[in-house]
Amino acid sequence: MAVHQPTIAIIGATGYIGGRLVPRLLEAGYNVRCLVRSPEKLENREWAADPKVEIRQSNLEDADLAASALESCQSAFYLVHSMTAAGASYAAQDRRLASEFAAAASKAGLARIIYLGGLGETGPDLSEHLASRREVETALRSTGIPVTVLRAAMIIGSGSASFEILRYLVERLPIMITPKWVSSPSQPIAVRNVIGYLVGVLSTPETIGEVFDIGGSEVLCYRDIMRIMTEELGLRRRWIIPIPILTPRLSSYWIQFITPLSHNIAKPLAEGLKNPVVCREDRITKLIPQQLFSVRESIRAALTKVASHQVETNWSMAGPIPGDPDWAGGALFRDIRQTTINAPASAVFKAVCRLGGGHGWYAADWLWIIRGGMDLAVGGPGLRRGRRDPEALGYGEALDFWRVVGFDRNQRLALRAEMKLPGEAMLEFRIESLNETQCTLHQIALFKPRGLFGLIYWYLVMPFHAIVFGGMLGGLASEALRISAAPLPAPIR
């Protein structure tokens, strides 16, 4: 007789940890139900087609809808954080969403909630970010459902926010003026160890309703972690000069300027660095034994993934996708271009999907760099976010200062601007197949201005469109021809 495997719900499957947890749960034999606001964001994940995966559209702000989506689930991983979307009000938003979820979980009869929180001593000096994590723990317990809490410090893995901060600071700054938090002790943990604990608690009854500190195999200060990153990157020694008057708040602006992270994320993370984050107990290491990575091993593993373009998830993948702007009514500016290419639709789409990141924009990259610098100066993401993979794209992923909001393989790619703009902007590519070896590429730029400054902005940049958009279209055509002419890889025998 076949044994029925329990269904585990994941709230936050589109995020950094959630996206890595799903395949590990599948490997462990569980059925997985992903509760997401935008199911399209999971379409390009390899595991999304697994028969043991169920994807349901849900909204934590609608307790009845969430309760319905949780029905028949045994346990749920709550992996939601509002830093990216809610900005300065993220703590209040996180409390509210956790309370709504606890009510929905109670209504659905959920047996257990598992939450990944943050390490840090309690008390008045706890940063807002870490204090918010504790408030979420309390909110999740508010309806009496047992909550298992794993509290972690810095999580090191390819694509994690902490790893990206470290890598960019070390790569770009041979001399670093830092606040005194570089001497704060921390116990980082590899992302694979975090996932190991998350999966392990499901089969360990002793963890129900308990709080555990989780960390790697060693405690280091941030200065030493930066030194290890420098050595693993093969760079010359970095000079780190702590200055007591440099506050975490000021540091967040410095992090925003140097790294891909926005101020909304950099500020709470930087303020949290002042708190020692070290495990005060190690009970979980006995309940769920696993090989714990050192900081050097964690960094080396993450760098290997980056170098081989095998980054599974990235910090920028989380967060809501805003609804499409109302393109009807009012002033709407368009730049529409098209060209016929003697290449199949698959080759053209592959060329389009290589836009941005290290590959560039096929023409006038210097103008894109200038525009990215301008955006960065006014608090936007600039071009620093890059992209998760140099070839592959999917719905909801970040691409420099754009976000993928439309993805139909070999037919359409739509990007919505997340740069600071006096209006709404979209860049869309549509591929019309004429026959097996020829198609027409339509390139459409839309801009809906906001007020007088929006109108002025459009007319100021319009003279550059022939260089930027015209050059891009020509570059895409040339790249598609190269892809089409490239020999197919030899079959593996």
Brief account:
This protein has 493 residues and is α/β, with parallel strands linked by helices. The chain is built from 16 helices and 19 strands. It folds into two domains: 7-317, NAD(P)-binding Rossmann-like Domain (Rossmann fold); 333-485, START domain (Alpha-D-Glucose-1,6-Bisphosphate, Chain A, domain 4), CATH 3.30.530.20.
Mean pLDDT: 84
Shape: globular
SS-derived structural category: alpha/beta
Biggest β-sheet: strands ordered side by side in the sheet = 3-2-1-4-5-6-11
Task: Summarize the SSE layout with pairings.
Elements: E1 7-11, H1 16-27, E2 31-36, E3 53-57, H2 63-70, E4 75-78, H3 83-86, H4 90-108, E5 112-118, H5 128-140, E6 147-152, E7 155-156, H6 161-172, E8 175-178, E9 185-186, E10 189-190, H7 191-202, E11 211-214, E12 220-221, H8 222-232, E13 239-242, H9 248-258, H10 263-272, H11 283-287, H12 295-307, E14 333-341, H13 345-352, H14 365-377, E15 398-399, E16 402-408, E17 412-417, E18 423-435, E19 438-449, H15 451-461, H16 465-485
Helix pairs in contact: 1-7, 2-4, 4-5, 6-8, 8-12, 9-10, 13-16
Detailed description of the structure:
This protein is α/β, with parallel strands linked by helices and 493 residues long. It has two domains: 7-317, NAD(P)-binding Rossmann-like Domain (Rossmann fold, 3-Layer(aba) Sandwich); 333-485, 2-Layer Sandwich (Alpha-D-Glucose-1,6-Bisphosphate, Chain A, domain 4). Helix content is 37%, strand content 21%. It has helices at 16-27, 63-70, 83-86, 90-108, 128-140, 161-172, 191-202, 222-232, 248-258, 263-272, 283-287, 295-307, 345-352, 365-377, 451-461, 465-485; strands spanning 7-11, 31-36, 53-57, 75-78, 112-118, 147-152, 155-156, 175-178, 185-186, 189-190, 211-214, 220-221, 239-242, 333-341, 398-399, 402-408, 412-417, 423-435, 438-449. The strands form five sheets. Strands 3-2-1-4-5-6-11 form a seven-stranded parallel β-sheet, with helices on both faces. Strand 17 and strand 18 (423-435) form a beta hairpin. Helix 2 packs across helix 4. The longest helix is centred in the C-terminal third of the chain and has 21 residues, at 465-485. The protein is globular, with a radius of gyration of 24 Å. The chain starts with 6 loop residues before the first strand and ends in an 8-residue tail after the last helix. The model has no long low-confidence stretch (mean pLDDT 84).
